[in-house]
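Dear V.,

Thank you for sending over the compound details. I've combined the ligand you provided, S-adenosylmethionine, with the protein sequence from our construct and run the structure prediction for the complex. I'm sharing the raw inputs here so there's no ambiguity about protonation or stereochemistry in the SMILES, which I know was a concern on your side last time.
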Amino acid sequence: MDLHAELRALLLAPRGGQAERVQQLQERAAKRPHPEEWNSRFGDNSLFQAWTSSPLMQSLYAKNTQIIRPMLDQTPNWRVVEIGGGDGRIWDLLRPDDQGEVLLIDPQPEVHLQVASRMPSGVTLHSVVDLAQAPAAWGQADLVLSSLTLHHVAGLDAEQRAEVGLQGPGKLEVLRRAKAALAERQGMLVLNEASVHCEIDLPPNDPELIDNLIDSYLRRCTQALLDGIEQDPGNPMAERWLSVAHRWCLDQITVGSLPLAERDVYELDVWRWMELLPRAGFRVESRQFSDPYRLFCQYLCR
Ligand SMILES: C[S@@+](CC[C@H](N)C(=O)[O-])C[C@H]1O[C@@H](n2cnc3c(N)ncnc32)[C@H](O)[C@@H]1O
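Below is the predicted structure of the protein with S-adenosylmethionine bound, written out as structure tokens.
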């Protein structure tokens, strides 16, 4: 099958019929190669490596670099807390003579290895694996960086989690920890998240939830990946970008049918982030989309 052409046809299909067509295409495409679970591998030849090389993600890193690099240059012995490291691609912004400290919070051991491999000798990396257990370990920071990670934390706040039988901190409580970690050095939070509402207040199979997921994964993310392939067909990553569109976009839409605790993506749209960030004590100094698809939004907060 020509998956690229099938995805293009799906994007052109009437919006009302897309959910059914997504399911049909998932079934027809099931035997394609690269069956790799979302956020399961981060090293060489992983889909994650292809993902972070895509124009969509490169433009996000460029926008973050524009903010973070001058801040590091102006701050002797800087200290950063990063929530969710991926393959550490953002740390390509570091220079060989940089001096500082990074505390990485991430549950995946491979992520810690990937991030460590990008640290110059003058930057010390500390590791924490559990966001829910970590408040005392955060210390003070000049920057908290949370890029495409807070959406893994279910619930606006602990109260909303409790309503659906989940314990522990929600997004609000994590953001409050970030605010506390930034207090002494008057540091800043850089937050990147997709603008799409798929939080736990939308129950499994809710038609609004399914359409929101299709909007984000198909109409914006798949569109961006296909455009990237068409603009640079000779790119060695192009075949894997198509696999990202398949395994992480098309297939990921099924999370809308999973029980709440298994959904693993609990995104908010811009307006919900703009309501939540002040509740955690943050002032949003600026916000901008990092791509022309208006998928990923960057919030700078103090
Ligand atoms: C989509 S990746 C983003 C990586 C990187 N920040 C970037 O922008 O490329 C999400 C990262 O969050 C991590 N993650 C997932 N759940 C997490 C949690 N509860 N606490 C901290 N990190 C988490 C994953 O292991 C992965 O490294």
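A first observation: Strands lie at 78-83, 100-105, 123-128, 143-147, 188-194, 284-289, 296-301.

Warm regards,
I. M.
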